[in-house]
Design brief:
With about 500 residues, the chain is mostly helical. The chain has 3 domains: about 190 residues, Up-down Bundle (Growth Hormone, Chain: A); about 55 residues; about 230 residues, Growth Hormone, Chain: A (Up-down Bundle), CATH 1.20.1250. Helices cover about 75% and strands about 0% of the residues. It has 19 helices and no strands. The chain starts with 5 loop residues before the first helix and ends in a 28-residue tail after the last helix.
Length: about 500
């Protein structure tokens, strides 16, 4: 039986993993623009942020679980389960009569969404030859960035024309299509053996992740009265992490791939993923605030200025993937890319006050293009080193590293921004929170000379924030230059049968 051509394999595999990944990724952003309408219908405005936070916590906890279960029970089988859970929870969100109900449904939805992200990446590693994976990781990065851009726009349109429930019920037909596409996936491995799962590790991991993300959410409020709660949650996370690491060292089949993380190439690659998240997400979070507060752009203008910052990350990722596929060279690309990115971000930090609005999109374009270079390298390298038996755990660890890096980076950059303002002028620091919530109209009652001072002080604080982001990028560059694995080799692999998906599933699939 002949091996499929790359073109045949692409049309068989990519649509089947792209749609589940898109659904999971877009659901973390599409809800944001619907929050005011949700609060208006269900009330409890003070708790409406839990609709977003609960999904984030659940997806982060679920990622390593699906990675380990996919390795043990079969990744396509687990993808069916994750999709069913995600779609069922979306239906529960549609009929939610209260914020509490909606929050609980979002938790269940996140438990499915975390599997869609992890299993999509792992299925690429299972089906695609090693060197070809670079190209696919570039494609998947483009899916992620497209969903991040598309989500807020689609959420606003759906909420305005069809009601906030539509941002959830749209998942029902998409889920059915995704289930049909996943059925088409060819399967290479037939997992078997006695099933084991680290339930103790899962409990400790949950007690680590949930308090940590909640502590970071408290820190992002830029309010001193949130500090005690953030510190208490952080303390719980640290204690849980200590017990988790000890338990993972003793477990026969640990939830987290501790044995993999002992390899120099893998832990450095994982840290590079974390620094990438710590660079990208703070930019996407704080640049809109910078444009509206310092530059005075409207929300619609801000969206247009952000297009290069999101679109060209996908371009950088796809270009990197193509280079890996054609040459096998991997680590040199983010080594150069992240080094250049650190320089560009440092220039943004120094020269942002004198850059014109027409010049900023070109700066954002360069930042995004360079920030896309490590994404395919990270996933491809870790999957190659992990081997077929630990593909799921390895893919989940990359997603986990990137998420934690993004959360920590956003909190730290926010602390730098707010701390700089508080050190220079506490009154401006207090006003900054109002500006973030209500926009430039918060300055309406101030005299013109005071408005000028406030904008200048906030501009200087953003320079410090951009410098902090440049540090994360420089750290990523140092890790990339020190990676011992510099090439991706095409190891022999059994051919894929394109009609395998139509065969009856066997036990352990």
């Amino acid at each position: 039986m002949s091996e499929p051509t790359p073109r045949q394999l692409f049309f068989k595999v990519f649509p089947s993993i792209a749609l589940p990944m898109f659904m999971a990724s877009v659901d973390s952003t599409i809800v944001a623009t619907a929050l005011p309408a949700i609060a208006g219908t269900l009330g409890e405005v003070e708790r409406v942020s839990w609709v977003v936070v609960s999904y984030l916590v659940a997806t982060t906890i679920a990622a390593p679980v699906y990675g380990r279960l996919g390795d043990a029970l079969g990744r396509r089988r687990m993808m069916f389960g994750a999709l069913a859970l995600f779609v069922a929870a979306s239906g529960a969100c549609v009929v939610a009569p209260s914020i509490l109900w909606l929050t609980l449904a979002r938790v269940v939805q996140g438990l499915g969404g975390g599997g869609l992200m992890t299993l999509s990446q792992a299925l690429v590693g299972e089906i695609i030859p090693p060197r070809e994976r670079g190209r696919y990781q570039g494609y998947t990065a483009s899916v992620f960035m497209t969903s991040s851009t598309f989500g807020p726009v689609a959420g606003g349109w759906l909420t305005q024309h069809l009601g906030w429930q539509s941002v959830f019920w749209i998942n029902l037909p998409l889920g059915v299509i995704a289930l049909i596409l996943v059925q088409r996936l060819p399967i290479r491995s037939k997992p078997g053996g006695r099933f084991q799962f680290d339930f103790t590790g899962l409990a400790l991991f949950s007690f680590f992740i949930a308090p940590l993300l909640l502590a970071l959410e408290q820190a992002r409020k830029f309010a001193w009265d949130a500090v005690p709660a953030a510190l208490a949650l952080f303390a719980v996370a640290v204690v849980s992490l200590r017990f988790l690491l000890r338990q993972q060292m003793l477990a026969a089949l640990p939830l987290l791939p501790v044995s993999l993380l002992r390899q120099t190439a893998i832990w450095r690659t994982e840290l590079m993923a974390a620094t990438t998240g710590a660079t990208l997400v703070p930019l996407v979070t704080f640049v809109p605030i910078y444009l509206q507060v310092v530059r005075g752009t409207t929300p619609s203008e801000t969206g247009l200025y952000l297009v290069p910052l999101t679109m060209f990350i996908a371009v950088g990722s796809m270009m990197t993937g193509q280079i890996i596929t054609r040459t096998g060279r991997s680590a040199i690309i983010p080594s150069i890319g992240l080094s250049m990115l650190a320089v560009v971000l440092a220039c943004l930090a120094v020269f942002s006050p004198i850059l014109t609005l027409s010049q900023l999109p070109f700066m954002f374009c360069a930042i995004a293009l360079l920030n896309g270079t490590p994404m395919p390298v990270v996933q491809t390298t870790v999957q190659m080193l992990a081997g077929p038996r630990q593909l799921g755990a390895a893919s989940a660890s990359v997603q986990f590293s990137r998420s934690i890096g993004a959360a920590l980076g956003t909190a730290l950059v926010g602390a730098v921004l707010f701390g700089t303002l508080a050190a220079v002028d506490p009154a401006t620091a207090a006003l900054f929170g109002d500006l973030v919530e209500s926009g430039p109209q918060a300055l309406a009652g101030l005299p013109p000379e005071r408005v000028a001072v406030v904008q200048e002080e906030i501009s200087h604080a953003f320079q410090a924030a951009f410098a902090a982001i440049a540090v994360f990028s420089a750290m990523g560059a140092c890790l990339a230059w020190s990676l011992p694995v510099r090439r991706i080799e095409n190891r022999p692999q059994a051919p894929v049968r394109l009609d395998e998906a139509a065969e009856a599933p066997t036990p352990g699939e």
